[in-house]
Design brief:
The protein has one domain. The chain is 16% helix and 26% strand. The chain contains two helices and five strands, in the order βαββββα. The radius of gyration is 17 Å and the shape is elongated. The relative contact order is 0.24.
Length: 117
């Protein structure tokens, strides 16, 4: 049960108390993130230990809550930034769920030379 590549995903930067369920998370989406929980997007939340993830989304007539718990490792999570939410694709969410740290991926540093000689 993984999202398709073209799904829009919103990742909440703030670490969340995993005791929150559908009502608490949907209120967090609306009030804290300023987004519409009834849209077609997925909303992703992580706990302080970064070993649990919840994904909330609206499906036609009700909310769906997806939960994953890691037994040994941690989920990569975005560091503090100016925005409360990080946008990604369904493909990137699948990478995150597989443990790939998208937030540390960096290209080669740019080089600048004055001459080829």
């Amino acid at each position: 049960m993984r999202p398709g590549e073209k799904v829009e995903v919103y990742v909440c930067r703030e670490l969340v108390d995993m005791r929150k369920s559908i009502n608490g998370l949907s209120i967090l989406v609306e009030e804290t993130l300023g987004l519409n929980p009834f849209g077609p997007e997925l909303f992703v939340f992580c706990n302080r230990k970064r070993d649990k993830v919840k994904i909330l989304y609206w499906e036609r007539s009700g909310f769906v809550l997806w939960y994953k718990r890691l037994e040994k490792q941690r989920f990569p999570w975005p560091q503090d930034g100016p925005e409360a939410v990080v946008t990604m694709t369904g493909r990137e969410l699948n990478w995150l769920l597989d443990g790939i740290d998208l937030f540390r991926v960096r290209p080669h540093e740019p080089l600048s030379y004055a001459s080829v000689l």
